[in-house]
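Pair request: fold both.
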Amino acid sequence: MSAQEAEKYHSVQINTFKQTEADLVTAITMNYVEEALGIVQAAKSFGMPVVISFTVETDGKLPTGQTLKDAIEQVDKETGNYPAYYMINCAHPSHFADVLASGEVWAERIGGIRANASKKSHAELDFSVALDEGNPAELGQDYIVLFDKLKNLTVLGGCCGTDARHIAEICKSALQHRNQVSLSV
């Protein structure tokens, strides 16, 4: 779908949101930048704040091969930095932590993570016969690395394979990190 097709397609739903008390449009699991661009343009045309959440493969790149950095920078450039912030979802932190660069403008635009419980690739998960629950405690610890790299990270959650155990560990890590930051300031 081109950016123009995506804008037309998503405009109907975003216009519906505009007619309600909705205060934000969030598009999750974006696989390619053109759809994200169309959603942002549609949201912008209706004056709705928007969040774009990209997914990445095990190499930290979008399924198209585009880097996360390039995707965020392209959307910002082509929309005048319109998204309120960006997120990453439907990928394990081990798939993208290495591509995040502290202090870079594009990384500072990331405000949310909804990680998968499993370290498996999307292809491996698609062909799995059983749910891979991953390791809840390890996932929580993986978020600490993300807190250190993403200074504006405020939206936390889980995606595929996560349950209350994973969310509890993520929250425990967030509190632990907050306390460490408070003590060192």
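--- second member of the pair ---
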Amino acid sequence: MGFLPPTLQKLKEFDGYLGKEGLSLDEGIGLRWTDESMAYDQTPYDVLPFMDAGVDGIHVGLLTDFGKVTDLEEAFVVCVHPMNAPASLKILARNPKEFVDYLYSDRNLTMFFNFMMIESEEQYRSMVEEGETDFEESAEFAEAQNLVLTKMKEYMGCKKVGSIYEFVESAEEARRKQIVLPTKDSIGIAGEIESGEELPVYPVDENADIGVAEAQGFLASAPLVSKLAFIRDAQYAGLIDNQTPLKGVILSELESLGYAAEVARLKSLDW
């Protein structure tokens, strides 16, 4: 967890402070600390997991854009639902500070757990109302949560978000403005390109394996942005695993590009 930026380090310290009082973020909010070992096949290779929900592998991580984001205080926070692939990814906040505001505001983590089903603010509000009913029926949990959130505001200086739905939509819009080449997972590839530069896109089909020679041929001639989009799309389609030689091709390409952290994460998914 040495990669945690100052805001998340402070949140972790706050969790330690809660522990001395017999409380925790897990009890009050429903999230606990984790590390890279939480990564699943659906976790983008350039996402650093740091918290999970303790159920169905659901976790959040920092998007590094293949190492381009060196100040993780500026990294987008991505939520991953491995069991809901392919609709398994959602950008929740533009940076760790906004993520803390989100945690403080989305009382029952309604967006966190249900983003794949929420298509409007009305839907979100309806789910919140249902959650509040359950919340009121659990006096013990309600008391712990109220106490944790009160202390969290004091310790972290977080503020309440007016509309969670608009907040998350705003984070996703901010991400879209950075994207130079879209990808199937909606995260896209950020960066800069030369005026008029062509960015070929490999037509990844989740129902068709990608041959070694075909993948190597594309990667040999494609610009960096297109290479990264291919890797992201192939992962999202579930085509990179130990049952296909494509994994070796991707590992070799990542190594040649100098992406040591991403190589390590992909190797950690061996099974």
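Observation on the second member. The chain has a mean pLDDT of 92.
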